[in-house]
TrEMBL record:
<dbReference type="GO" id="GO:0016491">
    <property type="term" value="F:oxidoreductase activity"/>
</dbReference>
<keyword id="KW-0560">Oxidoreductase</keyword>
<dbReference type="InterPro" id="IPR002347">
    <property type="entry name" value="SDR_fam"/>
</dbReference>
<comment type="similarity">
    <text>Belongs to the short-chain dehydrogenases/reductases (SDR) family.</text>
</comment>
<dbReference type="InterPro" id="IPR036291">
    <property type="entry name" value="NAD(P)-bd_dom_sf"/>
</dbReference>
<keyword id="KW-0521">NADP</keyword>
<dbReference type="Pfam" id="PF00106">
    <property type="entry name" value="adh_short"/>
</dbReference>
<protein>
    <recommendedName>
        <fullName>Short-chain dehydrogenase/reductase SDR</fullName>
    </recommendedName>
</protein>
Length: 244
């Protein structure tokens, strides 16, 4: 049985992704900052018939929680097959380049960028024990520099000095990570689930969490000949490959 860890998995897209992967027969660790809340979600899912789901405490801004989570996964599973770095925050709005505080930048980057690096680096040796390791970093179309410079892009006017750049940095890190792991059976990609109606955006997006999670699962449970180091977007309807 393959094992997956999803950070920020106690609600919204992360939770729906956990449900879909559970239905496909994977053992799912629900990463959650608040273990009690995570265990409540776990209990609810088990009562609804989901199997092989376990809440695990992990705060991507606190290395000690990541290390403890790794110990649990290593003891119970011996390896990790899939890491989905889903945890993220938007930060306070408005986000202007001229007057947003350094503290606001640091807070968002600590979760969206440095948090992904912390989790990935700590779990990398367990992923290397898998025959088919996968790392999916959940990004946003707002992280694409090419699209942000295109006046014809549907979200051209949606500019954020903090959130967008945090995802741009994540995309850049993913490219390097995929390159460094290219001679191993890893598939490392960034996945944009699209503009989805969640608590994250006050349910303003047109997409559903079900569709977003399906897209993430599609580009995570990939075959040996699948691409690595790519940017897949649910808002790009033709090729699904987004420009960087």
């Amino acid at each position: 049985m393959k094992t997956v860890l999803i950070t920020g998995a106690n609600r919204s897209i992360g939770l729906e992704t956990a449900k879909q992967l559970s239905k496909k027969g994977l053992f799912v660790y629900l990463g959650t900052r608040d273990l009690i809340k995570g265990q409540e979600v776990e209990k609810d899912l088990l009562e609804k018939g989901f199997q092989n789901i376990q809440a695990i405490q992990i705060d991507v801004t606190k290395p000690e929680t990541i290390l403890e989570a790794k110990k649990i996964v290593e003891k119970e599973q011996g390896k990790l097959d899939i890491l989905i770095n889903n945890a993220g925050i938007s930060g306070a709005f408005p986000q202007n380049s001229e007057d947003s505080s350094i503290e606001d930048f640091q807070e968002v980057f600590d979760t969206n960028f440095f948090g992904v690096i912390r989790v990935t680096q700590i779990f990398l040796d367990l992923l290397k024990k898998s025959e088919t390791p996968r790392i999916s970093n959940i990004t946003s179309g707002l992280g694409s520099l090419t699209l942000h410079n295109d006046p014809n892009w549907q979200y051209y006017s949606v500019k954020s000095a903090i959130y967008g750049p945090s995802k741009t940095a994540l995309n850049a890190y993913t490219i390097v990570l995929a390159y460094e792991l290219k001679d191993l059976p890893f598939k490392v990609n960034v996945i944009d689930p699209g503009f989805t109606a969640t608590d994250f955006n006050h349910h303003s997006g047109p997409g559903t969490v079900e569709n977003a999670a399906t897209f993430i699962v599609k580009h995570t449970l990939t075959e040996e000949n699948a691409p690595t180091g790519q940017f897949f977007s649910n808002d790009i309807k033709d090729s699904e490959i987004s420009p960087w």
